């Protein structure tokens, strides 16, 4: 395992990857920790900011080009910020069920499912974890 391929990657790829890794770790904490507390809200706001960074930075990543400079994965980059806003609105309106569903969907869809694809051969994270 070596961070060299990630640190040598062009453009916003390192920012995107480190924000996603941090969001994944904080997401696990959020699932395990008590809900509705000040730490939950604080970590939640940090997580939302990280997820916005992940989504926005992805628009400058064009390693896979299927539709012009974009790929279908960029649809998640539109989905995630919209869902983040809705999830925060649900929390502020005390609609806990909708908030939980939205945040869980973002976590699993935009981090877990999308993250699995970054470990395919030929991708930077594959080289980080498994070597060149």
From TrEMBL:
Note whether Membrane occurs among the keywords.
yes
Domain of life where this protein originates? Bacteria
Which keywords annotate this record?
Membrane, Transmembrane, Transmembrane helix
Entries under InterPro entries matching the protein: DUF2306_membrane
Q: Which residues cross the membrane?
A: 12-32, 44-61, 73-91, 103-124
- Give a single Pfam family match: DUF2306
Q: What is this protein called?
A: DUF2306 domain-containing protein
| Organism, as annotated | Bradyrhizobium lablabi
Instruction: Show the taxonomic lineage.
Output: Bacteria, Pseudomonadati, Pseudomonadota, Alphaproteobacteria, Hyphomicrobiales
């Amino acid at each position: 395992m070596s961070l060299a391929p990630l640190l040598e990657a062009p453009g916003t790829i390192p920012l995107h990857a480190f924000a996603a890794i941090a969001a994944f770790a904080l997401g696990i904490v959020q699932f395990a920790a008590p809900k509705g507390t000040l730490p939950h809200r604080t970590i939640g706001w940090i997580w939302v900011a990280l997820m916005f960074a992940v989504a926005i930075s992805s628009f400058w990543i064009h390693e896979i080009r299927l539709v012009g400079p974009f790929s279908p994965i960029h649809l998640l980059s539109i989905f995630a910020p919209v869902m983040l806003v809705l999830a925060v609105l649900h929390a502020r309106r005390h609609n806990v069920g909708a908030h939980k569903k939205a945040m869980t969907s973002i976590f699993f869809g935009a981090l877990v499912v999308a993250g699995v694809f970054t470990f395919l051969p030929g991708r930077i994270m594959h080289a980080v974890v498994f070597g060149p």
